[in-house]
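Entry 14. Two folds queued back to back today. First construct below, sequence then structure tokens.
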Amino acid sequence: MRLATTAQAREADRRAEAAGMPTRILMENAGAQVAAAVARLAPEGGPVLVFCGKGNNGGDGLVAARHLVERGRPVQVWLAAPEEAYRGDAGANLALAKGWGIPLAPAPVEAEVLDRELARYALVVDGLLGTGVQGPLRDPYRLWVAALNRYTGPILSIDLPSGLDGDRGVAEPEAVRATWTITFGYGKPGLYLLPGADYAGRVEVVPIGLPPDVLEGQGEVVELLESRAVAQMLPPRPAESHKGTYGHLLVVAGSRNMAGAAVLAARGGLRGGAGLVTLAVPASLQRQVAAALPEALTYGLPETEAGTLGVEAAEVVAQLLATRQALAIGPGLGTAPETAQFFQALLERPEVQHCPAVLDADALNLLAQAPERVEALARRPGGLPWVLTPHPGEMARLLGRSTADVQADRPGAVREAAARFGGVVVLKGARSLVAHPSGRWAINPTGNPGMATGGMGDVLTGLVGALLAQGLGPWEAAAAGVYLHGLAGDLQAEARGPAGLLTSEVADALPAARRRVLREAGLNGARGD
């Protein structure tokens, strides 16, 4: 689903007006949708408070108040500013509300009065602030938001919960915790990122009459991943096929005491649908990983006395790639000096530079030691057919900043990394993000806290590698991979509860996740399900 940044939403309104759609009509449509949502959220009736700021959100609220009165609901409007401050479409609708005799009053500014008065209402409509809010809230808005968050009834926010950053999903320092958010035309990224999704409650995107092409040519493309789009990315599984049809993935992973990471990555590759997976590990681990995962081929690579890969392994890996379609590298490799030499030598190989690949874990930590080498490769025509999958700490090392800085602006961090390194980048974590060097980025809504355990990223590495091996491009492999990985975790959480999930169980649920998205898209059977 296409999303709109706050700037794009404002430009969409301007373009709609230029195309002949008056903003007054857009506001009328928006307010009518809010009133209809109130009827769905609180069907039993009871008085409604509509809290209106002086901007467009307040104007929407004033329209909603009029429609609610028409439906027979008792309504009170609180104004956040003097009446003369309401101008334009909001001012016109304030005058209309007065003409209808709708009760209007200045919003109280004492906490005790706010709490006492709010308790009288069955539902509150939050129309205080919208996409135009910038920076920390000041009083009395901060006071009002705090009072709304003490209110125990349902809250319906218009477009965005007041105080929430519509692009980053952060509150500075507080935002309304809504029961339901009605947003217009397009969803806003901040409603689906965390913590914004927790503030927004249930999100419903409703039409208000915007022309269908108002986002075209507006720079960055922002999306929310959905099952139908993911299903379309998945390769077909024709009846007349064989293991060679679905690609051969090479997984380079593991070191002494880290064999499990290698096994999990290979398991993710197999459960992700690759026809063949070769797990290449330090030679002393080969027997161990072969016993742990008999479905995978194994290869013992030259190793150091410490049980890590040395520089001699780079030549062997390059030779192995000659008969494989994709590479997954990083889980459990370690960052010993000899391994760093191996990795830097591998980056120089044209077989690696042109191979669809997913880099994770220690491959990213090693990359962070000399990021300029990959940046130089990225400047070549066509860039790199790679997917990088850092968690916030790894992303911080890649970008040379703190983890807190990365988490404060996850969309900015993932887009910067994609632009710098010339590949598709996944920023893992709750609501993982996917970014393309072109500026396109997406939010993944699947996954749950039960997946916060060691090894989950290793499975994702293998899954993305398997999709690359099956012929998906880097964007499609990354987007489908994070969605299916999170959905597999959700299926396990449904069956077992939200804690104690094993990484191998999530890997084993990947086929069921794939089947789920195909069925939801109506493609079961058409793609081998």
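Second construct, same run, same settings:
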Amino acid sequence: MYQNYLLFIGFVAVIILLTKPLGNYIFNVYQGNKTCLDWFAQPLENLYKKVLGINLKKEQTAMAYLISVLLFSLMCFLFLFAILRLQAYLPFNPANIGSMSWDQAFNTAISFVTNTNWQSYSGETSVSYFAQMVGLSVQNFVSAAVGISVCIALIRGIARFEEKTIGNFWHDLGRAVFWLLLPLCIVITLIYIFQGVPQNLMAYVHAHTLAGGEQIIPQGPIASQEAIKSLGTNGGGFFNANSAHPYENPSIITNFIQAMSIFAIAAALTYTFGKWVKNTRQGWFILIVMGVLFLISLSVMTTAELYTIKPHMYPDLSDIYGQTHHLSNMEGKEMRFGICHSTLYNTVSTTASDGGINSVVDSYTPIGGGIALLNMALGEVIIGGVGAGLYGFLMFMILAVFIASLMIGRIPSFLGKRIQGAEMKWVMVALLISPFCVLIFTGIACTLPGIYESLSNSGAHGFSEILYAYTSAANNNGSAFAGLNANTPFLNITTGIAMLLGRFVTLGAVVVLAGKLVIKNQVSGDSTYTGLSTTSFLFGVLLLFTILIIGGLTIFPALSLGPVLDHLTISQVF
């Protein structure tokens, strides 16, 4: 058991050690300071600038920034939709995979453009090499870069005073790709190749087994997609089994690197934020609160998988001395990983809005699966996605400041900015759009006979499968509970709409909020403004409860009908 503790402690230690140097590097990249990768990235940015034909140094207002984000995302959607609909006629398709149906192409294009990477298909049988490389992998880079760009825009909105602009989207996008995502992915890809992850354009291998049968072994450019899949908190797997497949994730070394990659940039951005607002303690405070939520989630999920199966559930199982024992739940988990490597990856994946999985969530205990569901329902703020995690967390932080200030009779202010009703409206839009989509679409789906027929389980567990699907979609996660046939016109369309609203309504609210904050002047030193410390232990406790109550309360009734009821039923409480 001590090895499991060392695994968790080692993972947390690595993330903490990476946070400051990587966060400082991101700060220098966006401040235009000299970095160690200028020789690699600057020529690419120069070419990028010539292709766009625009001045990357000309800053934009919040509205212009948002329009650029939306137009770019629309172009990406149309580009990817066309590739998926025409992939049967495009090159690099040795398996002769046909084109996607319109509803599945619609869902998949939205999924990758929104950084959700929800997959209602099996990658090895539904997507050609060309679509994987030119379509999906490209979106893995740029959708992650969009999240980082919007986060940087919000940081500028908070750090600047009495200005009108929040940066240039095209400049921020290029910096995220050329200075951050691309060079790191090259290094990680090489590590994966040395660990045995394939990277080729070979045709599928037809192997003959000892039993006389034939097995088709897929090939493809897997290592490169794996690198950006994790680093950009995308999660879309090359194979249907995702990171449970030995080609995607062959060992505990690659498993650890993938989990570390998922958290690396999102954690580092907390330090970037602290340094940008000239208060590094604020950045570490944010990371600590995120870390507390992560450790609680990891502990509960791991305990559930190790000890929830109790002796009275299986009285016939006993050792040679007639004594029964607690059983660990290995169903749906790979033997090469075991329980703790599986729960670590699953906790990281669901807290960081990364849809990758290395085990079947549907086979987890109700409590273990319920924790994965709750991680997403909180709004991807426990570390969260690249960029999206920090700006989502800052929404909760501003809300906590607003509540606490009113409780103690102070005018709400955050890092020198007065928080008023206009700002709070956009904060609430950002926080409530995802639970709105989850509850509305789940309620509609539960009334349709066709949805019930597509479930592999009935009762509370079946409800959890539906709830998990829409929670994953609306919160830009993309992981699947399994047991639900998601490739139907209704589910493809409704989960696609949930992904669109969950990503772009939130993103739009954040950019508008940045525009409202950037024009504000710095508040005076009067005690009516300075009575609240946003790095104190007391405020940390308040912030935790704000996240759990506001983020969790909307989903708790649904959880009681799904994982909680499922747990009570299995435990034979009734």
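Quick look at the second one. The longest strand covers residues 205-208. Residues 317-324 have pLDDT under 50 and may be disordered.
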